[in-house]
Amino acid sequence: MKNKLDKKWVHNHVNNFYVKLAKKEGYRARSIYKLQEIDAKEKLIQPGQIIVDLGSSPGSWSQYIRQKLSYNNKNINGTIIALDILKMKPIPNVNFILGDFRNKCTINNLKKILNGRKLDLILSDISPNLSGISVIDSANIKCIINVILEFTKEYIKPSGSILLKCFYGNNYKEIFHKFYCIFKSVSLKKPKASHKNSSEIFLLGKKLKNKQLN
Ligand SMILES: C[S@@+](CC[C@H](N)C(=O)[O-])C[C@H]1O[C@@H](n2cnc3c(N)ncnc32)[C@H](O)[C@@H]1O
Asked: Pfam families, per this entry (predicted)?
């Protein structure tokens, strides 16, 4: 019981720390620190890139990407497309698509903005609403991840990367396996802002394997 309470205290403490920091630094969510830590090490976001931010609301990842691509306070060098099933308060230079990524029409709207171009970087922080029933939740997570991976195979540049949030659960081995089939380099990331007791984990895939190239 004590142990459980301690764990809960640590969890809340870590959450509160990042929530306060995000507020202080003008970010819309504490998730920013997950992306920031991974990006600091992996140098994922570079000027000139075409980037999609899936599951973008309320918008802290898009805020961070915009800062990284900004060359003065007004303009950016690159393209940012954010997408979420929920509304997002506008961010300058960020194209926002409101829609469920599992729907064809949402992907068609994304294709319109891409206008034949391919993506350098796909970021997904999508978390489907959890029901608490593990079979249903695992199936929903698997479904959205499969849609993201099919999209990735078609719309990412051969040199591109994907950072995808997933969860340890019934399907995670299958998801890792798919990553290894698609990308030359695969690694797992667990940033400090993601509490160590949570099943959340980020998969990073870099460069398409030859057989995926169109
Ligand atoms: C953890 S939040 C993302 C936080 C965001 N990265 C930020 O920094 O502000 C997860 C988001 O995934 C979105 N989401 C869940 N299922 C989705 C789907 N099928 N299509 C698009 N967005 C989805 C949710 O609406 C939610 O806003």
From this structure: FtsJ
